[in-house]
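Here is my example:
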Amino acid sequence: MIYYELKIESSSETIEINEDNAIDYADVVLDTLDNSTQKKSSSLLARMTIQGNITSSINDSLIKISEWARDLKKETTYRKVTLVIKEDKAGVILRTYEIPDMFVCDYSEIYHTPKEGTDPEPFQFVLSLNQRENKLEEFNTY
């Protein structure tokens, strides 16, 4: 099983999600903006998508993420995001991403009414982030 730890840092606060089964999907992409490019250029975009389950144990963190998504203050809009992906509960780390100057592109929470006679599926959140332009040299992978 894969375990995730997410840390979002600004000068004024730190948001963390590291509970078991809180995050169930992570996608980190380095994308050339123009796929028909003929040579390597600096027009790359760093994106991250995190998806997980809305539970009472991470509710306060999700409220802070929602507030960040609506934040327009220059000093707190861009934040350092660290994502740690672990292979097992013992903590064998597969990858660590440290990406400064990330901002929220999209944040959504999905709620639904379970169908009668079925197990309720967890409510979900989806956080989509991009790195600020011209900051790719500060993207770190361990």
Residues 59-69 form the longest helix (11 residues).
